[in-house]
Amino acid sequence: MKEKVKRILGMLLAVICVVAFAACANFGVEEVADYNLTSLGITVRSNKGNVYYIGQGGNMNNHDKFAESLTKYLENVKQVVSSEVWVDNNGDLYLGGYDFANSEALAEPKKIGSNIVMANGNEMGFLAVDKNGNLYSYGKEKHNGFDKEFKELTKIDDVKDVVKVSSLGPSNSLFVTLTKDG
């Protein structure tokens, strides 16, 4: 019970920190660009490309570590796909923490793609779109939109001119792509 109360108070503190972080924008400092609230904590990406987390699980290599205040763990980020998958401002796609497709812990973030404009999914599997509208898949079977495992970022030749991809459902077993022709 004591642990449950601590988690609830921690989450309440997290929400207060995000509100305070957002309020700082009025003073010319970092603003909240987007955030993700999960049962483990909150991940916040600022307008300056810095990524912070509060709670548990945002530290990639140490998921058991509980941060009681906003803790910066990434810089130069354009999109946070999940706490362990992100696209930087150069269009490079990274995987950090644990590579589920290859069953290996990662000591350092692993660059797995370039020229990526957006991605959707999580560390178990995801789809990505490059600047030319090509679709790519990575990760474990049933989590990457396909009935096959992709141990490296793999171009899907059957789909062209993709503008956006989105996952349906919490396990990323279903994805929807939007193409230029609708």
Lateral strand order in the biggest sheet:
1-2-3-4
Helix content: 10-25%
Structural class: mainly beta
**Strand segment count:** 16
Portion of residues in beta strands equals: over 45%
The topology string of helices and strands comes to HEEEEEEEEEEEEEEEE
Question: What's this entry about, in short?
Answer:
With about 180 residues, the protein is mainly beta. About 10% of the residues lie in helices and about 45% in strands.
Provide structural commentary.
With 182 residues, the chain is mainly beta. 12% of the residues lie in helices and 47% in strands. It is built from 1 helix and 16 strands. It has one helix spanning 2-23; strands at 32-37, 41-46, 51-56, 66-74, 77-82, 85-88, 93-95, 98-99, 104-105, 110-113, 116-122, 125-130, 135-139, 150-156, 162-168, 174-179. The strands form 5 sheets. A 4-stranded antiparallel beta sheet has the order 1-2-3-4, covered by helices on one side. Strands 5-6-7-10 form a 4-stranded antiparallel beta sheet, with no helix packed on it. A hairpin with a 4-residue loop joins strand 2 and strand 3. The radius of gyration is 17 Å and the shape is globular.
